[in-house]
């Protein structure tokens, strides 16, 4: 449910760093300011779900605009994520963090004041760019401010804040719309970022010292341009095609995607051969463990944002729940996720990739349970929605069993010199999956919504369940846990 991010930091350099106070860092911790940024960018991915029906009604937004509100945020986030980390290394991490925060605040204000669906979508694209500037610089600043063992506590806080933002997003969105402060309605879910972001910006210079790398940093502008074109050529026709009855340009756009991906691959190989810094390190795709890990990450996240989108629309437009009631339904799933994720690290140490398989199968079973419930559900309102609870709990457990183990299993097999590049690539795959998944599942959901929201959700859950079974199969390509250590602990028994 939360985002995976990284920073480009050399662990071997930790011993060369002076203690934070000696390096000129203020005695006050930079964490409160950094965590404000983290909380906002994760929250904004989830809080918008329960606002979508209100946005549709108030702005007369069509299916395409509704999808872009979710997919657009993930799209720009994915495109600029790795480049943003390098911009911080080159121009100063605090400077890029401040730039991202300012852009995110301004874009949030634009979202909250948007007079039309088109303006809202454009502002969400800008929000995604702001989030991309914030995300990698937060961990980069933590990596410099807290060298060596001192880094454990802030990283733990970072993960906790992400989990809280993800778990509380839908509920906070429902509360904001239900309370309707100043008559803002759905606009409150975006405008709440403005005062919080401005307060954080006011303390940034005081709390965070500037840092940058002494090494030359190159930017892969060609790679960024090609990945932007490829993703846009894929997502744009999938979102707009059904509403426009698939004109010729949509098929032409989809047809050029393989060529653009081929050009991207050639560009990355050329940059690597020349000793540059490609956007996606080709070496990551030469090792089966890493390539299969990135593929599993992409496939898994293709289903997550899409699931939240179609479920939010079904709960409010299909069952007639209020935003607050829909938020409570999501909270059931989030609570199960948090409970399962607390056990996931220990289980991953013991069972390795099997935890990812178990998580994906559990999620597929949850989709099946929800599908059966929806197909036999009678009536509307919160009383009817209660019957969805077992499936939602199962879905939360599946997410908790899969998300952290997937990241841990893949990163555990990375060369230390490429750990940062791999984590950055996994973060990019997550955001790409979110954007592409919303576009693909949106074709199915909105294509069937004329037959009713229950039917649209049933077809979407069928597609998402099949995708998760594919994720389970892909997870078996990941390397197994190192058996020597495990066997020694269990008297030689194989896991």
Question: What features would you highlight for this structure?
Answer:
19 helices, Growth Hormone, Chain: A, 3 domains, about 500 residues, mainly alpha, globular
Question: Which secondary structure elements does this structure contain, and how are they paired or packed?
Answer:
Layout: H1 31-47, H2 52-59, H3 63-91, H4 93-113, H5 117-145, H6 152-179, H7 188-191, H8 193-207, H9 221-244, H10 248-273, H11 288-301, H12 304-318, H13 323-351, H14 354-375, H15 381-385, H16 389-411, H17 419-448, H18 453-475, H19 483-489
How would you summarize this macromolecular structure in one to three sentences?
The chain has 495 residues and is mainly α.
What does this 3D model show about the protein?
The chain folds into 3 domains: 219 residues, MFS general substrate transporter like domains (Growth Hormone, Chain: A), CATH 1.20.1250; 55 residues; 194 residues, Growth Hormone, Chain: A (Up-down Bundle). The longest helix is centred in the C-terminal third of the chain and has 30 residues. It contains 19 helices and no strands. With 495 residues, it is an all-alpha fold.
């Amino acid at each position: 449910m939360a985002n995976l991010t990284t920073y480009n930091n050399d662990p071997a350099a930790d011993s060369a760093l002076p203690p934070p106070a000696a390096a000129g860092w203020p005695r006050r911790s930079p964490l409160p300011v950094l965590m404000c940024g983290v909380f906002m960018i994760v929250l904004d991915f989830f809080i918008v779900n329960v606002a979508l029906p209100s946005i549709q009604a108030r702005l007369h937004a069509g299916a395409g605009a509704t999808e872009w509100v979710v997919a657009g945020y993930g799209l720009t986030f994915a495109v600029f994520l790795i480049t943003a980390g390098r911009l911080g290394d080159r121009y100063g991490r605090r400077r890029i963090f401040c730039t991202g925060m300012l852009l995110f605040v301004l874009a949030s204000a634009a979202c909250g004041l948007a007079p039309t669906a088109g303006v809202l979508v454009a502002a969400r694209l800008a929000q995604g760019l702001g989030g991309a500037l914030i995300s990698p610089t937060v961990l980069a600043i933590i990596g410099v401010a807290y060298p060596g063992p001192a880094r454990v506590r802030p990283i733990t806080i970072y993960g906790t804040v992400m989990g809280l933002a993800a778990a509380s997003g839908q509920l906070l969105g429902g509360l904001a719309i239900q309370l309707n402060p100043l008559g803002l309605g759905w606009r409150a879910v975006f405008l709440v970022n403005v005062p919080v972001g401005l307060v954080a910006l006011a303390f940034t210079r005081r709390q965070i010292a500037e840092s940058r790398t002494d090494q030359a940093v190159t930017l892969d502008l060609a790679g960024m341009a090609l990945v932007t074109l490829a993703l846009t050529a894929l997502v744009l026709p999938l979102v707009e095609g059904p509403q426009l009855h698939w004109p010729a340009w949509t098929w032409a756009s989809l047809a050029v995607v393989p060529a653009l991906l081929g050009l991207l691959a050639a560009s990355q190989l050329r940059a690597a051969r020349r000793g540059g810094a490609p956007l996606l390190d080709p070496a990551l795709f030469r090792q089966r463990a890493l390539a299969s890990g990135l593929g599993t990450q992409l496939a898994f996240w293709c289903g997550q944002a899409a699931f939240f989108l179609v479920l939010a629309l079904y709960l409010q437009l299909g069952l007639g729940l209020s935003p607050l009631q829909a938020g409570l339904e999501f909270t059931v799933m989030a609570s199960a996720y948090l409970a399962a994720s607390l056990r996931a690290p220990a289980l991953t140490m013991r069972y390795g990739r099997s935890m990812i398989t178990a998580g994906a199968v559990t999620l597929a079973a949850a989709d099946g349970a929800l599908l059966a419930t929806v197909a036999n559900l009678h009536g509307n309102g919160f009383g009817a929605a209660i019957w969805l609870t077992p499936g939602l709990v199962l879905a939360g457990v599946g997410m908790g069993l899969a998300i952290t183990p997937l990241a841990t299993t893949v990163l555990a097999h990375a060369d230390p010199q490429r750990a940062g590049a791999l984590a950055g690539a996994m973060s990019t795959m997550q955001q790409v999956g979110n954007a592409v998944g919303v576009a693909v599942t949106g074709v199915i959901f909105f294509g069937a919504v004329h037959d009713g929201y229950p039917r649209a959700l049933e077809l979407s859950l069928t597609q998402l369940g099949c995708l998760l079974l594919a994720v389970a199969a892909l997870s078996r390509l990941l390397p197994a846990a190192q058996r020597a250590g495990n066997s020694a602990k269990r008297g030689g028994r194989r896991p």
